[in-house]
Pilus assembly protein CpaE (Sphingomonas abietis), 421 residues
Amino acid sequence: MNAPFHPRSATLRDPFAAFVCDDATADALRPVAIEMGWQPEKVHKGGLRNAVQTLAVSASPHILFVDMSESGDPLNDINALAEVCEPGTVVIASGQVNDVRLYRDLVASGIQDYLLKPFSADQAREAFAHAQLTLSGPRVTEQSTDRPHMMIAVIGVRGGVGASTIASSLGWLLGETEGRSTALLDLDIHFGTGALAFDVEPGRGLTDAIENPSRIDGLFIERAMVKTSDKLSVLSAEAPLNHPLITDGSAFYQLQEELKTAFESTVLDLPRHMLIQHPHLLHDVQSVVLVTELTLAAARDTIRLLSWLKANAPSANVTIVANRILSGISEISRKEFEDSIERKIDMAVPYDARTFAQAAKLGKPLAEVAKSGKTGAPIIELARSINSAVEAGPDKAGGNDKSLIGKLGDLKALLPKRKTK
């Protein structure tokens, strides 16, 4: 566990011990323990509190399973456990609370995995196998670099505005022009185009991660990521439409943590509905790119998302990119759009049908195909400016205090007036 420990001799350490709160959990663990070559008698009753009392006077095992079901203050009790465990003990916790915030706090405290009760024998078996892998060898080597990790979220304010096009181009540019090892994580599980943009197969890595968060570690990342170049790897999915994936978000958090270890930058292609379900995804994001179009609906949703980001990701630097702009052809003008959202559009990407089509046919990111033209220039500048801002340090831009209702009122003023009879 990653916490202070009391020094103690490790000569008599058992390979495994469990402290559970109920017979059902004990009955689930004992057969798995036997399969792993451990003594079933090492599954004790008493839960987390008993584990703390027992290990205060005896050597801690190499792999420790603790049941937190009866703990009134799990984090405090886990910290007490850290005080009596020896360095190198791999701890797997279990409980009945399905809360991603608790999962984050437990992982930060040094817990390797958290199994939600009731869990299956396969889940326990996989968690123990993962623990043994952790004990048997070092994790994937961390990045040997002084460059701060960069995490960027690209969000389309409306469907079809081309956010995935910007995300794939941004990932490619951070690798190729900014020299950063980069991961592109496409979180549109059923309809993602992250792999398609580079003409590679998405694989099952992302769906496996969501279904089995306990599998996510450095080795998993190394195997699941699809390399498109020396500097860019993609994790995307095309999950079957009859296969809904239910998650509390712990898998996404764990993925982010491992990507921060394995890469110098991460680009999240983040569908807007994910913000509602999993707002914690933006916890470590330094830069948010809002991709929009020049329409009334997009202006409305840009206002709403700016307000949401101000409340939920106040330290993130927000860049607004207007995509696929046709000169002189738009539902509302750029000035009307900017007046309604009360800030400037940072970059506008002109629409060139031939270039967009060529990128799709070649299976290459738009920025690579259009790097010498007008379409590619603003995307290249976007990557450069984001990289410079992150490497320079946090940029806390001042916000606008005008209420959302007031902004929507201004937006409605752009609507055509109805004729009265």
Observations:
- Confidence is low (pLDDT under 50) at residues 2-11, 138-144, 395-408, 416-421.
- The two ends are 75 Å apart (CA to CA).
- Residues 296-312 form the longest helix (17 residues).
- The longest strand covers residues 317-325.
